[in-house]
Amino acid sequence: xxxxxxxxxxxxxxxxxxxFTSLAGVPGIKRADVTIGQAVIEHDGTVTTEQIRxxxxxxGYTIGDTRDDRRTLPLAP
Length: 77
Hints:
It is a single chain. 29% of the residues lie in helices and 36% in strands. It is α+β, with helices and mostly antiparallel strands. It has one domain (2-69): Alpha-Beta Plaits. It contains 2 helices and 4 strands, in the order E-H-E-E-H-E. Strand 2 (29-35) and strand 3 (38-43) form a beta hairpin. The protein has helices at 13-24, 49-58; strands at 2-8, 29-35, 38-43, 62-69.
């Protein structure tokens, strides 16, 4: 499952790294692609929006819009 969230307050590479590091500590998150203002998070489906919000809050930022996509791309062998 993939969840895309907008992240407010990010302005630099340090911000990106802080959000990435916080998300990496959430059980169930397999991958997080973080850019300024957005995070695309692949997870096992057990991760809630609240867990994502809390992890990003620990890094000092807030989330806005969220979008869940239950489809995932197949992994290459």
